[in-house]
Amino acid sequence: MKKDALKKFKKNKYNIYLALIGFFLILLMTFFVKNKIADYNLRKHDREIVIIKDSENNQHSYTLREIRKIKSIKKKVKLEKGLEEVELTGVALERLLGDLGYNLEESPNLIIEDSEGNYTTFPMSVALEVDRVLLVYKINNKPNQDYDDAMGALSLIDTISDNKESWVKDVKVLDIK
Fold first, then answer.
1. Is the pLDDT of residue 22 over 70?
2. pLDDT, averaged across the chain
3. Of the candidates 78, 45, 77, 68, which has an alpha carbon nearest to the alpha carbon of residue 145?
4. CB atoms within 10 A of CB 70
């Protein structure tokens, strides 16, 4: 019986090798296509803009496309006392603000304006903690608006908080005061 199996293997070894290679190629292509579909869904939001300004009226604006080119991070966050877990993809706020050259040490607050004109204040000490506050554009590998219609293209999320109500949805202006 072993001899028969060995003969069949020798006779079909190239077919087996080709099947294994084909299987791995299909896995790689599936992963690649999945990422491209996620990026394709974000393209419709590429022109969304966030404006960052300081007290001296220095301004920078970023489109979602430019923000995605900055080194993004993925972070899993537990919500509702651990009952729900979401994966956030975005740019750490401390990295984004630090690259602009603003004088952040003399600014006690970061004022965030959303598309409806509502203001939220973050202490600068919280905003500058490493990888704590994220400017998020994907939640669970979907664009924010596919996750929740009210989210907008960009949201500001404190990853320590376990409550969705503390999320700043549809961020338009970050004002360093």
1. yes
2. 82
3. 45
4. 14
Write out the two tokens for 33.
């296509």
Residue matched to tokens 């020798």: 10
CA distance 48 to 65: 8
Which two three-digit tokens encode residue 139? 């939640």
Answer yes or no: is pLDDT of 176 > 80.
yes
C-alpha 170/C-alpha 115 separation (Å) is 6
144 — pLDDT class (breaks 50, 70, 90):
confident
The end-to-end CA distance of the chain, in Å, is 80
Average pLDDT rounded to a whole number, residues 113-128: 85
- The single residue listed with the structure tokens 């996620």 is 38
Residue 86 structure tokens: 């979401």
Spatial contact of 54 and 39, defined as CB atoms under 8 Å apart: no
